[in-house]
Design goal:
Order of helices and strands: HHHHHHHHHHHHHHHH
Mean pLDDT: 75
Oligomer: single chain
Structural class: mainly alpha
Largest sheet: none
Number of helices: 16
Low-confidence stretches: 1-19, 207-212
Radius of gyration: 34 Å
């Protein structure tokens, strides 16, 4: 708030600047500070107290600005996720494929030829695996109606006989509902039948259009990821050298190179840890299914290695598929429950113990930091955030370790 000041020193007995007596315009605390600072006869203690009050006010203002900046950054991360998610995915994929391109380059194959060869080989491997599993997936979807019918029959058969406690409670609840409905809607005596028109709660056209929009957006993002990955691999270390060139001093250049090397090492260790987790899950699923007598245990093991890499959605789809296949094979609800229980235990151990521990060791971060990063980025970006949480946090840790102002953040993330 502006404070009116007399500009004529001769207008005051002391010959100093004084605030003008304007009603409702002067802050008493600020007036006291000005008096204490500008009074020639003021003691040093008064001046020190005034300066300390000014410093505390500035600190409060800076703290408030920091909070506003953090909130603005979080909003920007959420608002720009459509652009940032493909960019981060492309960086991770380029790191995953860079060793293959570098190996071909060491064999005197130019990068302009090695990058398309590696990407086409990767896409062919993914497409071949999908095509190989196409028959299994089609047969699984075709058997879903029959599986639902069998489950319904099994539950109906199991519920025959004398009603148990839950059955009696359900029967009593139905009786109470019937009595309440009869009391609210007494029978009409005028011979007119009441008619109620109900709108359908589910419209296939809206669902199909929504699904097509989601599929279209996903396809567009994957195409953008494919193009960005190609450009990053084709560029090699061009942008890294440009970034180092932009740094002004030699000491800062050295720190920048160290940060980039740390980020490279962290992402490579993350990819190795993710592959190790998938391998462990596949082995455990294969052993468990072999012991339970499930057919095609090897196929289920390979499928689990891919699906468990997708948080939440992957394990859920795997459990549902195992339940349907188990019911077709064993035709027993108890056996299906055993299979589902085994899968749920594996998913719980993998998601809450194995993955945080492996990723914390690979990223040299604490398990708590890894778990919190999964929660935060999952809340920020959904499923993609959970997939990218660890490499993003590892890159932040590598950056914070080399910049003194951010060392507290690195200390929090470290083991």
């Amino acid at each position: 708030m502006a404070l009116p000041i007399r500009l004529d020193p001769s207008a005051t007995p002391s010959g100093r600047l004084e605030p003008m007596p304007a009603a409702g315009t002067a802050d008493p605390e600020l007036v006291a500070v000005v008096d204490a600072v500008e009074t020639p006869t003021g003691t040093a203690s008064h001046r020190d107290a005034a300066m300390s009050r000014i410093a505390s006010s500035l600190e409060r203002a800076v703290s408030l600005l920091r909070i506003v900046a953090i909130l603005a950054l979080l909003w920007a991360l959420w608002w720009c996720q459509v652009v940032l998610i493909p960019l981060v995915l492309s960086v991770v994929f380029s790191y995953a494929l860079e060793p293959l391109v570098a190996r071909l380059e060491s064999w005197h194959l130019r990068r302009s030829l090695g990058v398309p060869l590696v990407m086409l080989s990767t896409l062919g491997l993914i497409g071949g695996t999908t095509y190989a599993l196409r028959g299994e997936v089609t047969g699984f979807v075709a058997r879903l109606p029959e599986a639902a019918h069998r489950v319904s029959q099994a539950m109906h058969t199991a519920s025959r006989g004398e009603l148990g406690t839950m059955g009696k409670m359900q029967a009593a609840a139905r009786e109470l509902e019937s009595a309440a409905a009869a009391a609210q809607h007494p029978s009409r005596t005028d011979g007119i039948t009441a008619v109620r028109i109900e709108e359908p709660t589910f419209k296939w056209s809206e669902w199909m259009w929504s699904g097509s929009r989601n599929v279209g957006q996903f396809a567009a993002q994957m195409f953008a990821v494919l193009c960005l990955t190609y450009y990053l691999l084709a560029a090699g270390d061009l942008y890294r050298r440009k970034l180092v060139h932009l740094v002004p001093t030699l000491a800062d250049k050295r720190i920048t190179v160290q940060i980039l090397e740390d980020i490279d090492r962290q992402i490579e260790r993350f990819l190795m840890a993710r592959a190790a987790i998938s391998l462990v899950v596949a082995i455990v699923v294969w052993i468990a299914f072999r012991m339970l007598g499930v057919e095609n245990a090897g196929v289920w093991a390979v499928l689990s290695a891919f699906l468990f890499a997708i948080p939440i959605v992957g394990p859920t789809a795997f459990v549902v598929a195992v339940a349907v296949a188990g019911f077709f094979q064993f035709a027993s609800l108890s056996m299906v429950a055993a299979l589902v229980g085994v899968c749920v235990v594996i998913a719980a151990v993998e998601g809450n113990m194995l993955t945080p521990w492996f990723l914390s060791v690979a990223g040299e971060m604490s398990s708590i930091a890894v778990f919190v990063s999964l929660l935060f980025w999952g809340w920020m970006w959904g499923l993609w955030g959970v997939l990218l949480a660890v490499p993003i946090t590892a890159a932040m840790k590598a950056l914070a370790e080399r910049i003194p102002e951010f060392n507290p953040i690195a200390e929090f993330l470290k083991k």
